[in-house]
Amino acid sequence: MAEPQGRARGRPTPNRAPAPRPPSNQHRPSAEAPPLYAEAAGLGGPVMAAEGGAEPSGGAGLAPVPSLSLVEGSTGRAARVGDPGDLVALARQVQQADDFIRANACNKLTVIAEQIRHLQEQARKVLDEANRDADLHHVACNLVKKPGNIYYMYRRESGQRYFSILSPKEWGTSPHEFLGAYKLQHDMSWTPLEDLERRDAEINILEKLLSRQAALPPCTEPNFQGLTK
């Protein structure tokens, strides 16, 4: 049979006086006194309780706080927040920052996507022009083609295409079908006669830029002054 508590094995327990009772006008400390600090769920640190010692009600007046972290002090515990509403402001600020970052990233990606589409169009144009220039260089011609000259292309009844230096006006009544006129550039590319004015203007601007830059002293930035005048 187990011995009663408070009595040592083999020795009698001396009689002890009962503990004094507190006066009736004093309140005994309650075992269920509210803690000074209520742990904030998911925040990694304590939050100061509301005035009067009562714990803040779960979710009452507090919005969800996603992924909100508080700075830990030297004692290893998170910094205390005096007002529970500060947590809502902190969470709202974090959410607003995430929204701004996402919007900025979307704007930059939109610009990049537009540039990619433009580059794709430019690449397609370059390939088309390269195929056209290669095809024109294989057209029959009894003359040595010189850059800077305009050549007129005709097609015989047999389907053969050939270049001539005579225009339809100079020919008078040409027995062959006229297909078009092209100018041979110095880079051995061909420019259609309808695009010749625009192409010559671009070449003039580039030549003017090169001559102006060659005459200027060395500088860290290019000088485009006067190119459009």
Secondary structure topology:
Elements: E1 37-40, E2 45-48, H1 84-137, E3 150-155, E4 161-164, H2 168-171, E5 177-184, E6 190-192, H3 196-215
Antiparallel strand pairs: 1-2, 3-4, 3-5, 5-6
Structure explained in plain terms:
With 229 residues, the protein is α+β, with helices and mostly antiparallel strands. It has a domain at 81-138. 34% of the residues lie in helices and 13% in strands. It is built from 3 helices and 6 strands. The chain has helices at residues 84-137, 168-171, 196-215; strands at 37-40, 45-48, 150-155, 161-164, 177-184, 190-192. Strands 4-3-5-6 form a 4-stranded antiparallel β-sheet, with helices on one face. Strand 3 (150-155) and strand 4 form a beta hairpin. It is elongated and about 135 Å long. The N and C termini lie far apart (116 Å). InterPro entries: DUF2452. Pfam families: DUF2452 (PF10504). Residues 1-35 are annotated as: Disordered. It comes from Strigops habroptila (Kakapo). This is Chromosome 1 open reading frame 50.
